[in-house]
Amino acid sequence: MANTPDWLQERSAAIPLIQDAEGLKIVLVTTTPKEKDNWIFPKGHVEIGMSAHDSAAKEAYEEAGVIGRIHPTLFDQYEHQKWGGKMRVKVYTLEVQDILEHWPEMRHRNRTIVPLDQAIELVQSVQKETLIKLKQTR
Question: Which residues are catalytic?
Answer without folding.
Answer: 62
